[in-house]
Amino acid sequence: MGFSDSFEKAKLPSDQLEQNLRYLRDLFTDDETLIFRKLENNRGKEPQRFCLIYADGMVNNRLVNQDVIRPLLEFRFPTGEGASLIDTVQLQAMFSDDVEKTDSVEKLIQGIVYGDSALLADGCSEALILNTKGFTLRSIEEPETERVIRGPREGFNESILTNLSMLRRKIRTQDLKFKFLTFGRRTKTKACICYLDSIVNRSVLAELERRLEKIDIDGTLDSNYIVENIKDAPFSAVKTIGSTERPDVVAAKLLEGRVALFLDGTPVVLTVPHLFIEHFQVDEDYYINYVFTSIGRILRILAFAISLCLPAFYVSMVTFHQELLPTPLLMSIFASREGVPFPTALETVLMLVVFEILRESGARMPGLMGQTLSIVGALVVGQAAVDAKIVSAPVVIVVALTGSCGLMVTRLKGYIIIHRFFLLACSCAMGLYGFLLGQLVLLTGLFGMSSFGVPVMSGVYKTKLQDYKDDYVRAPWWTMIKRPRFLSKNKIRQSGGGGKAS
């Protein structure tokens, strides 16, 4: 978890204030953002000398002035024997809501660079870490990639404490547990494992902790740094770890017995285990009528199949199995291909590549300009290619339909793009037999894959009707009374509402 530098176990070298300050200044050499604010209290029999250390721009200056400096200068220290000076300050003088005493240099450094203030006193070999965080954060707003027409509008931001508080407002029970970790030798990034103690799948939790223990990396700036180190199939395009920016989604998954992992500095929260069927479930499915939800989910599954298979199926039929096509359709296809210099397979590949280029450029362009570029670019390029007899019109239709269907299941974008070309290669080699063989290879890979011990295709095949109520369709809430058997520790009945269940 946390990886050490040379001062991990080091302690403050002395009880003399100036010697400790020289030591800390040497550690922060060439860091001009660090503030050393010296203070002296003369209200007692003897003057008491202190130094407050904090990073400029990381603290709330009002808190520093009113809750630290002012009470420290106005406090009248007792005379005679008794508690040490630093204990007196901690117990009697400080207004700060979070005060920790330590002699660890590692803790002092981590506190200072994270927005806390360190208070050192002359004659004491220990220091206080005061909660004075005040750096600027992005406000809470709806995630751009997970917008809903109906439902909560809030999304996570880059502060782990803010994100955890949003989750607490969703699940108001002492059963919600938090375990804090630290990743990165250099970044020392905070992370938190969240779960509901009474219903979590213990084997999943233990496996997650075991994998996290093995992570050895310099820095973790985003949750994907963690994903690539702990996912089940690191070379597969299939996601075995879920991700979301919405508190309601995380709460719903925890209520099923899953585990969530928060990482400071990113709004993306990871959830495990993650099943393949979840790619077709969207947040809004649980906020609108179950009939419309079920229709939408079936359409997304159909769109996935079309986007993945249509180009390969078209090439195999036109190139190898023309006898299976109706004669009028076959004549129309060959009439449109008159004058096209490339074979069907090559023109399909070229158009797919062009479409991906236009899609990627549209995604990278700012706002409405990107949407305009992708739409106009596709129309202009497609029409110009057909007029110039570079590609045939049926191929443009196939690629356009393939791309449009792919936009309905953006969570599977990487999987679809990679395996679409794989199926296309199989079809080019052996026609419909190659297409079916490629499908068999893909299905074998999916059914042999697991997510933290849970098969990723668990949501596809079930033995009881109850288990199908949140897979291909969503049943009414009053019928979803049990949690998923393959996730929950116990078969506990839900008392209405709660999170989504299978």
Summarize the structure.
The chain is α+β, with helices and mostly antiparallel strands and 502 residues long. Helices cover 43% and strands 12% of the residues. It has a five-stranded antiparallel sheet with strand order 1-2-4-5-3, with helices on both faces.
What this model shows, in words?
The protein has 502 residues and is of the alpha+beta class. Helix content is 43%, strand content 12%. It has 14 helices and twelve strands. It has helices spanning 17-27, 61-74, 85-93, 105-113, 160-170, 202-213, 223-230, 247-254, 290-320, 327-336, 344-364, 367-387, 393-406, 413-447, and strands at 34-41, 48-55, 99-102, 117-121, 127-130, 176-183, 189-196, 242-244, 259-263, 269-272, 450-451, 454-455. The strands form three sheets. Strands 1-2-4-5-3 form a five-stranded antiparallel sheet, sandwiched between helices. Strands 6-7-9-10-8 form a five-stranded antiparallel sheet, sandwiched between helices. Strand 11 (450-451) and strand 12 (454-455) form a beta hairpin. Helix 5 crosses helix 8 and helix 11 (344-364) crosses helix 13 (393-406). The longest helix is centred in the last third of the chain and has 35 residues, at 413-447. The two termini are 34 Å apart.
